[in-house]
């Protein structure tokens, strides 16, 4: 699978429907009506719009002053209906995903594939082996229509509309995303995968993903994202909620390779119940601004949470990422490992929270932040916060900032290796813990992406 950005901005797409530019109450109602949603969802959307309009932009973090909310198209429907056969997808959309490698990925290893183009999922497939065991993997619109009680029970239960300004925006105009339900005791031993593509200038993509793992279930969900480069910025503002019930395991892997003028403002959070485990593996490439801090609430004894993130910031980019772990119960364990690379005057920031509530004894947690800067013009910041309200805990924090030294480059180039290849080797070693968590096909492609990022970065 390739994660490289396509330069297909010359494509002319014949969309089934495209909303008017800008955001208002009628746009929200129109989205809900076109999806034939129940009244409670329309009311939820309209209340979320009120919350969004009442909240100011964040007063911390990257500069969002150039983000013009009224400059965005909030809903674009590429097809009249979702396709279940790849052969039925129109050639212009299919060619985009063929180039990204989606069909090949499905053929070789993946349990299911969902492909979202603009606002809607255009293709969804799930192997019969899993559907026969009661696994649900569909887009959110069908999740609401086909499984209304289950959907309503969990939707916005972890990230309500008032959580933050961009969660409110997503709640008002959400479209697409994945609805995943894994029944008790079912282990899906191959990844489910979704791919999200912004293809239109000034597009807003607001997918919403809901994953429910019942008792002792196991699932690995992988998502990739990309967009071509246009003159005007686009906005990606997703919400992801995970409910991991007793003894279950959920791994959520993200590889995002956005164009350099995308605002990527995402809220992701999971709740792990007794002896459950949630792992976020989060790779951030591209975008103008990224604000993303995957979170885990360890709600019951024995729960575990892991966050492993990597961010690469280049010229004109600010990657503000990290993670949050909240320990609410005793005997809970967590790790946050964050690695950032900044080059060509890019800025990478780690922003994290570790909280241990009173009564959460025998907690064990480790936070590690490593930053690698490739030149003197780049910037790295670290904003760790630890709120420890219990004395019987074992908490550690490490942080390091380093540069690729002349000695390292001299050692490698003296053996006939080019500077670009040498720097890529050093960077690949730096991010090895992240690479090791990925299926082989994704690890190979991420290495290629790193090598592409390193071209021209040194010397």
Topology:
Blueprint: E1 17-18, H1 25-34, H2 39-54, E2 76-77, H3 91-100, H4 102-108, E3 112-117, E4 120-126, H5 128-131, E5 136-139, H6 140-146, H7 148-154, H8 165-173, E6 178-182, E7 192-197, E8 204-205, E9 208-213, E10 218-226, E11 234-236, E12 239-244, E13 249-257, E14 262-265, E15 267-272, E16 277-285, E17 289-292, E18 295-298, E19 304-313, E20 318-327, E21 333-342, E22 347-356, E23 363-373, E24 379-388, E25 393-403, H9 406-413, H10 419-430, H11 432-435, H12 440-454
Helix pairs in contact: 1-2, 2-8, 6-7, 9-10, 10-12
Proportion of strand residues: 35-45%
Number of helical stretches of at least 4 residues: 12
Number of strands: 25
Q: Indicate the radius of gyration in whole angstroms.
A: 21 Å
**Are there runs of 5+ residues with pLDDT below 50, and where?**
1-12
Largest sheet: 13 strands, mixed
Helicity range:
10-25%
Distance between the termini: 30 Å
Overall, the morphology is globular
Mean pLDDT over the full residue set: 85
Structural class: alpha/beta
